[in-house]
Amino acid sequence: MSRRFFLLMVLFIALGVAEAQEFLPQSKAKEVTQVLDGIDQVLGRESDAAALATWSQQTTGFREEARICVTGADRRLEQLRKDLETLGPRVEGEDSAVTGKRRAVENERAAVEKQLASCRLLLLRGEEVLKRIDQRRQEILARHLLARGPQIHTLVADNWVQSGDWLDGTRDFIAEHSGVTHLSPGMWVVLGLVALGSAGAALWLRARILWRLAARAPPLSFSGRLRRAGLSTLARHARNILVSASVAGLIWLFVEGARVPFVGLVAYGLPVYFLLIATVQFFLAPPMPAEPFLNLEEGLSRSLARRLQLLALLVYLGYLLFSTVLWQSLPEPALLLARAVFSGVLALNLIWVIWLFGRLPLFAELGWLRFGVMLLLIGIVGAEWAGYRNLSIFLLQGMLGTLLVAGFGLLISRLFHDLYDGLDSGVRRWHREIRRFLGLAPLAPFPGLTWLRFLTTVAVWAAVGLAVLTVWGFSEGALKETRAFFVEGFSLGSLHVNPSRILLAFLILALLLPISRWLRTRMEKHWLRRTYMERGAREAMVTISGYLVVGVAVVLALAVAGMDFGNLAIIAGALSVGIGFGLQNIVNNFVSGLILLFERPVKTGDWVVVGETEGYVKRISIRSTQIQTFDRADVIVPNSELISHQVTNWMLRDPYGRVVVPVGVAYGSDTKKVKEVLLEVARAHPEVLTGGPLPDPYVLFRRFGNSALEFELRGYVQNVDNRLTVTSDLNFAIDHAFRAHGIEIPFSKRDIYIKSWPASESGEPAAPARDHDRGETNE
After folding, report:
1. pTM, rounded to two decimals
2. Average pLDDT in the 134-148 region?
3. From its phi and psi, is residue 473 left (phi > 0), alpha (psi between -120 and 50) or beta?
4. Three-class SS state of 141
């Protein structure tokens, strides 16, 4: 087997030197077939995982070459078919050059068809061999994972019987592998002096850091609290980190030879352990005088910090026990029992940590995931105690790797999410600089950001998926197939879908939209202002240029995505025919819908007034727009009406709105006092804007009315949706304030004078009723 395997390796290297060509030579195709046949024969015998991985990589490379050959041959056959159609059928008396060219094309087509058949056969053969390799890998993996050793009760009994071996193994380990004998008394003195010096330096550093923290006021910003927590944590753990690092460095200098003694491994792991402890305390429970910068309950953060510090200690002890010479010095039953106990303690601590993480707001909705991880941990411990140690290690590595990769992906996704939120709202200074460079208003949306969010999410989690497949030990062939699925695409009937090209098209669109915005801003504010063009002409050119750049971006994105523009020509022809048969109204609404979607004069959620319809835009489709009135009635408005008729949009550029409250006071009132009270009421309302980009509240003395002095209180609110609510609140507050300051709000009065009254039945005029002498009514 080894000789055949060696020959296969040599032949594969000889074949792999040449680059992948569009057409495989006949000789090379035969050699590849021989290699695949040899691999197929060897697979029937006992094989190890390393050989299977190598053969899988070889077969995948051969199959890729065969696939390239099939694609190139199909493309060449299509070109030869077009050439024959151009030459046409043979006719009597045609030129000999045409006949010779036709014969040459036909001969080449026959050769290409023969080559295509050979490449397709090679492709099928490679897929068959690759399938057998995967089956063999699964058999070996299953046999490896289901291999069973002694169970936990057997290990306990063996260690009870062989208890003396513990003492002998410990004595031999101290004498031969501990490394104590490698250090002379002078070295121990130097180590002690260095440790004392490091401790003194750490105390000085701690005092300096605490003095600086006490001299400065506690910061308010997140970055300032982060820096303060880092300095405080460094002051707390400086002694342990400096002493362990200096001792580890000296031991590394003192110990000679390639084999490091156990005392050196202990010293090398201590700085890492103390750094882990400091990192946990920095994030969850920074020492005084630092303030916690994570919004967590104090008891929860302390408990989580203790669990994670214990987890760091277990990792350090596991490193010393299972990754050093200590593992080779103790008897096998003792080591297996120690491994079983260690796995149980580690799983219990991990379950506790996961349960504490479930109380965090970020993971509160992932209860099913936490429950699944806990069950997996219990299964890992059960497999370890039942003797399936290979299965236990496989599951533990897969789970930890998956959690680590998923956590890293979640962190990267969160960072990009915060970046895009900052660009959209201008949180930091450099965010605002980018928005100002692109000419965006303070509340204007960032162009193309939706596509960037989508692309980032897809890219990050696709990478996480590939990493998870690698963690769980998928074969190289399966990973290549997965990558080929995204890079080369797949077919749905006659439609070929290429995910990578589609994502690249979205990326181009997301990058060109901000460039379009920047170009329009530069033209409007800089380039065209220096010309003698009229304002209307400049605005038209800016608008046309913006649409042109967007159109180019869309066309380029469609071209990159692999869109066949012949289909667009068919659609355009069908539309023109439809317009000729009476579809003008539908096409008008269709084009109007496209204008609404691109120009966005009306957006979902806007408060609009269209004719007699007033309400919120609930949905914009390609033909009509759905508006929900304040009575919860849905009105379907054709898109052409939104384009060709007047539309009032209360929230087009920003959600700000103005509130106007008319007030009348009695004649004789102190008008200055009235103004002060109205302004005080307006400024006291939390939703009335003051001190911002919009004007502060102000009062207008409108007119001298028939029975009152008429004023108007005007102010701006941040959200025009709350205009009626704010108006009501201001009316209540004005009534209360006027009562408190003795300002009268009059009502209209009318005097009724009765010149005569109808006579009574006795003939004498009746006296008018008392309450009819003077009537008072409100207008």
Report:
1. 0.53
2. 79
3. left
4. helix
